[in-house]
Write a structure and sequence with these properties.
Number of helices: 14
Strand order of the largest sheet: 12-11-8-13-16-17-18-19
Number of strands: 19
Number of domains: 2
CATH class of the largest domain: Alpha Beta
CATH topology of the largest domain: Rossmann fold
Radius of gyration: 25 Å
Helix content: 25-40%
Largest sheet: 8 strands, mixed
Distance between the termini: 24 Å
Bound molecules: cytidine-5'-monophosphate
Structural class: alpha/beta
Shape: elongated
């Protein structure tokens, strides 16, 4: 169910110093399951070698329009038909001009004329060249023609100047591609998520918390956003960069998280509770640091509010998805939680095993709803989040249709 898996992208590389980032871009695209074929202009080969790009893409690199051997293997028309997307990154000022006027004097410009696939460009040039009247006029024309523009960004340039014209970073380009290639099934739908751990203070320097990294929740937030949803993420303290185009609210304790969730819940269509909320908090928070002058000590704790349960008890609750992290009897506990907390879906994951669950890059899930279930085998949390979000979308629309 990974929408990006096996999507076919032609990466066009043109003559710009930002071409040194293209190898990383190819690697990141392939991590998403995308099949990449690289086409380079002659100028691009002065900045990075075709051999490097062949090694990272796993496919032969195309450079010539009139090469008998390449035409035999996969001709330019065939290549133009093969692509689901042509991304030109970096796109030089010269190439943007060629694209504007429909030139077809090298392989890349010919492909752009011969394809029915969408075309995206990531401009990269000196800030003066980017600001030049003619470049801006060309870009306006290209945008009117439906060419997608990724960037450019503003900042320090290889030429020593500062300004607009930097190519977006490879991770940002992957995000843009994800957005472009993912059908906007959740357009107009508001998704609210909780993520990460909460912290319950004992004294001014100590707190109770857990090993949740927030990665799963952050990845689900990004996947929901890529599907076109309006996403709000209420997050406990984590060391992650926030997903792009998502509204973020940072909270500390379970009580703070509850307050923030209740403030947003009324307009929410889908609520996904991935946070590992502390079940208990100290009855008393000491105002001064607790001294170690006793051999042992007893901490008295009281129960925190169950955010998820409070949401499903509302008169008009949103479609609600819970998570169950268990070290044993995963299926029984998850099914019980689905019923007891009155959830629409529950995603169960086994924690306490090496390389999966808390604080890890990978995860595996077993998802249950009232009359069905689905197993997602172990893979990266990002891929898993996309698959899960598609299932949630499917179940959400099935539910609202009833
Ligand atoms: O009961 P348990 O903590 O295992 O339930 C897990 C699910 O409930 C998760 O979705 C978690 O985000 C949510 N939860 C909550 N508030 C709590 C405890 C758990 O929202 N106080």
């Amino acid at each position: 169910m990974n929408l990006l898996a096996n999507q076919k992208v032609i990466l066009g590389i043109t003559g710009s110093i930002a071409a040194y980032k293209s190898a990383d871009l190819v690697r990141r695209l392939r991590e998403q399951g995308i099949i990449v074929r690289v086409v380079m202009t002659m100028a691009a080969t002065q900045f990075i070698t075709p051999l490097t790009l062949q090694a990272v893409s796993g496919n032969r690199v195309h450079t010539d329009l009139l090469d008998v051997e390449t035409e035999m293997a996969m001709g330019h028309i065939e290549l133009a038909r093969w692509a689901d997307l042509i991304l030109i990154a970096p796109a030089s000022a010269d190439f943007l001009a060629k694209l504007t006027y429909g030139h077809a004097d090298d392989l890349l410009s010919t492909l752009c004329l011969a394809t029915a696939a969408p075309i995206a460009v990531a401009p990269a040039m000196n800030q003066q060249m980017w600001q030049a009247f003619i470049t801006q006029e060309n870009c306006k024309k290209l945008q009117q023609r439906g060419i997608h523009f990724f960037g450019p960004a503003t900042g320090a340039q290889a030429c020593g100047e500062v300004g607009s014209g930097r190519m977006l970073e490879p991770f940002e380009l992957v995000h843009q591609i994800e957005n472009l290639l993912t059908p906007k099934k959740l357009q107009g739908i508001k998704v609210l998520l909780t993520a990460g751990p909460t912290r319950e203070d004992l004294d001014p320097v100590r707190f109770l918390s857990n090993r949740s990294s927030g990665r799963m929740g952050y990845a689900i937030a990004a996947a929901a956003q890529a599907l076109g949803a309006e996403v709000t993420l209420i997050t406990g303290p984590v060391a992650l960069s926030p997903p792009l185009h998502v509204s973020i609210f940072s909270v500390y304790s379970a009580q703070d998280m509850l307050t923030s969730v209740l403030a947003h819940i009324e307009t929410t269509d889908i609520f996904i509770a991935t946070a590992a909320v502390a079940d208990y908090r100290p009855v008393k928070m000491e105002t001064q640091k607790i001294k170690k002058n006793q051999e042992s000590m007893i901490l008295q704790l009281e129960k925190n509010p169950d955010i998820l349960a409070q949401v499903t008890q509302l008169t008009n609750p949103p479609f609600t998805v819970g998570f169950a992290a268990e070290t044993h009897q995963l299926i029984d506990y998850a099914k019980d939680k689905l019923k007891r907390k009155n959830l629409d879906m529950i995603a169960a994951n086994q924690v306490g095993i090496e390389g999966s669950g808390f604080d890890s890059e990978d995860n595996a899930l077993h998802v249950f709803w009232q009359d069905g279930d689905m197993v997602f085998p172990r893979c990266s949390k990002k891929q898993l989040a996309r698959q899960l979000m598609l299932l949630i979308t499917e179940r959400y629309f099935e539910n609202t249709a009833q």
